[in-house]
What does this fold into?
Amino acid sequence: NAGVMQNPRHLVRRRGQEARLRCSPMKGHSHVYWYRQLPEEGLKFMVYLQKENIIDESGMPKERFSAEFPKEGPSILRIQQVVRGDSAAYFCASSPEEFGVGVQPQHFGDGTRLSIL
Amino acid sequence: SQKIEQNSEALNIQEGKTATLTCNYTNYSPAYLQWYRQDPGRGPVFLLLIRENEKEKRKERLKVTFDTTLKQSLFHITASQPADSATYLCALPFSGSARQLTFGSGTQLTVLP
It folds into this structure.
């Protein structure tokens, strides 16, 4: 009964390169969320997706960042032309379909630690 | 704007005592509140969810209260153990989007043997 799987666990990129972070939700979960955690700071919401749809991207920077959750395969968070300030831990969470809005807990992966040289 | 405060960055207690962590919020009327545990290098792990119409919820040695008048939640760990040492996060749904969770910055609990 695998939990939320994120890979890679650690990713090193040079400034200007692209970073691709992958997230496989728990089996049966159709909702995926991405959060960013900067050192000594709390988790900040970035984007919420359902299969093939972006539902809420209000926490994601308008430039360089994009997210997708295709019909088949994992959710991908893509950061283009990375800068030093993108260094952080990126966490993915998932939750099942529910019958009452907002009452299901989110199940988190162990994150991808992105370091920009 | 909405704000969550966990009023202790760090809390040290002796093994066997009860740890009490506080989460205060402003400009919110959340339908529920959640508590998570996070260990170093790991993702948050869900512990408890309490709804606005529930005053108290228990799970084994854990107890959560939710006072919507004071806009405060208290998280208690009774008979604390060194294995309870971790960072504890409270989270509330963002008013504009029930599925977007807003997290507090956490309280780092250390249980001393």
